[in-house]
Amino acid sequence: MDWSTWLRMPMTVLLVLAAVFLLITLVQLVVLRQHLHGGRRLAAMWRALLCLIFFALALLLGGTGYALRGYRLLSEETPVVDIDAHILSPQRWALTLTWPDGSTRQVQVAGDDWNIEAIVLKWKLPALLSGVPPLYRLDRLSGRYDDATQEASAPRTVISFDHADDGFDLLDLHKQYPDWLPEVDTLYGSGAFLPLVDQGHYTVSLMRTGALVARPDEATQQKIGQPFGG
Question: Is the CB of residue 120 less than 8 Å from the CB of residue 210?
Fold first, then answer.
């Protein structure tokens, strides 16, 4: 993963800031010790207060960064993932997911279509006016059957992209403690799906509005038999 990708992740920025404040805390502790040895108690009390403030900021930034792992900044149109499909048997597919940073993942889904969903976070007016962009993270990929009856009874496949195995995630925090995150305006889901074809190649992007857009390449579109995307 290159530096440009890391910098588009709010987790990275917040954890770096947390490390900076932690370093400042250590510096203040050294100065505090010097004041104590020198008998300057008033100056030592002031340094102790600064230590507490900087350490609290480091904990706050570190905890927030950890809760935002998996989220990325949302620009005008952000490439999310490329999907390559290969048929294994009727209604059984192998998918290769390729992220913008070059990492890949192999999964299998059942159905006639693939369906991908993302979670989008938007901010309230003060944060919005200050230029804080929306955040997003992929939530899940699943197979989808064209026939509604089959959709209700046939085997389903759902692949999770959830990074919060321990339950410590911004989405969970906002649901359980909404007053803790007053600047969060909305947390909502966005999804897109396209028919699966053998040797199909698809690109998925997320618009700044929060809408997922899925597009097949030209060869895949011809196999599907009708235009999609736009």
Answer: yes
Domain boundary among 16, 39, 67: 67
d(C-alpha 205, C-alpha 68), whole Å? 20
What does the alpha-carbon distance between residue 154 and residue 160 come to, in Å, rounded to a whole number? 19
The residue among 13, 39, 67 that closes a domain is 67
Q: Are 197 and 224 in contact (CB under 8 A)?
A: yes
Residue 122 inside a domain? The answer is yes
- pLDDT above 80: residue 197: yes
Nearest to 194 by CA among 185, 205, 183, 180: 205
CA-based nearest residue to 190, from 115, 99, 119: 119
Higher confidence at residue 186 or residue 32? 32
Cite the DSSP H helix spans in the chain. Answer: 3-7, 10-37, 41-67, 125-129, 148-153, 170-176, 218-224
Asked whether 133 and 75 are in contact (CB, 8 A), the reply is yes
Q: Whole domain around residue 100: which residue ranges?
A: 73-224
CA pair distance 175, 113, nearest whole angstrom: 31
Collapsing DSSP to helix, strand or coil, 27 comes out as helix
| Residues 55, 98 share a domain | no
pTM beyond 0.70: no
**One domain for residues 97 and 170:** yes
**In the prediction, which pLDDT does 177 show?**
47
